[in-house]
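Course exercise 7: structure representation. Students receive a sequence record and must write out the corresponding structure in token form. The form below is the worked example handed out in class, using Choline-sulfatase (534 residues). Read each field label carefully; the graders check that inputs and outputs are placed in the correct fields and that the protein name is recorded exactly as given.

STUDENT ID: A-19
EXERCISE PROTEIN: Choline-sulfatase
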Amino acid sequence: MIRFGCFPASSLSTTIPTLAKMTRNPALSLIGWITCCLIAGPAIADNEATASTQSNPTRPSPTRPNIVWIIPDDMSANFSCYGETAIETPNVDALAAGGVQFNRAFVTAPVCSTCRSAFITGMYQTSIGAHHHRSGRGERKIELPAPVRLVPKMFQDAGYYTTISGWPNRGKRMGKTDYNFQWDASVYDGTDWSERKPGQPFFAQIQTKGGKMRGKDASGWSRIHEQAEKTLGSRTGEDVVQLPPYYPQHPDVITDWAAYLDSVRMTDHMVGEVLQRLEDEGIRENTLVLFMTDHGISHARGKQFLYDEGIHVPLVISGPGIRPGTVRDDVVEHIDIAALSLGAAGIEVPTWMQAQDILADDYQPRDAVFAARDRCDETVDHIRSVRTADFKYIRNFLPQRPHLQPCAYKDAKAILIALRQWHDAGKLDATQELIFRPTRPAEELYDLAADPHEINNLADDPGYQDKLAEMRSRLDRWMEETADQGRQMEDAAMYDSNMEEYLRKFRKPDGDKAHMRVIESNIALMKKWAAEGK
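STUDENT ANSWER:
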């Protein structure tokens, strides 16, 4: 049996242990091993039905605040309250001014499905077997380990009306879920809080397209510019674009970034619409509003990778009990929104949950945050990182592979085509060439104060060997204590199951056959490299 990495194959009939008790402290101790359940054939999860019978005590609270999450896709912290100067984002800025802004918030996974699987459970995706992008969608399923359950279910059990939608709300159409495990859609009561009972508090997830509004090429760029002109009265000009030094001044890269900035402006406008609705309904003062993106910008070094462009996100929270104008510089993880939201509602945070209530009076700030990248679509990978306020350590478990492995999703974007063209033509400087290395360093270490763009790898620098050893130890301890399931690579049967489901839409009569052939070619390459031990 081929396994996608250097680990031995194991039986697919392995049964799943329950999740052992763990503590919500910086060490995140986990006793025992957690695995995902791989089911050969269709299955429906019983977890939610089982969980609904468990008690969920609530702490006394004079009021039960509503909770609203606004979570756009594919967007870094390019908001003016975070220092962006090319555009203005008055609504997110106002939200921050009226509450707390976290300057160092990081996702534990730089791609949507794994990120969402983590925040909706308050668990590291690597601990619950949800670490491969869009996994468990085919014949072979993934079940959550007991007693883990979804945040909306916990709100539901506490008497909240739970919703998930896009924005603007499209009637009964649910917003993006994209969870990598079996779950019961009944954890959401509806798509709009207006359907709740009189006086009933609500928990609402609002999912927006965010950076995806810019599309992947010139047609998408034109579309978002037109939307910005129509809605906001202007478009973002290319003359204000400030690219990070690892991207070249290629016309398409510049144009794409200007379109991305307009997607940020449109997202900000949507935030304003949500806030205005809460004001119009007279419930803004008793509603905790949380704004966070699912990961960074979709770009060569952003989405799917563990550099800050991929994992650093905005996190702004405003609502009852939060002192306006608060700015925090401690490092926090995106999964923490689960615990803090439960805490704000007076719902006891489960002891199994790895998320921490970062708004609690007794919260002890972390000194490090962690992130993981595994398979994304057809592209097999295995990367881990640990970040403190001042340093980032990245471990590449497949260093023999190129940084930019073939990936049909990313390679179809005009910006990747442009970057490859200039690479082939020898027009990139040494910094811009880093992403085109044929292999990767096994370890990367960056001094973030001196090198915020993570360009100068210090892993081999004699002067940083003590820091390297410290960061290695931190990561090793985290992988062990949280039972990182990525240490056992995805087996061929699960990979094939996921790829069959991924290819299904392209195999339909109206599917993109050219894109399908690229995916199939990449799948064959992944299997070839796995067989070669690459």
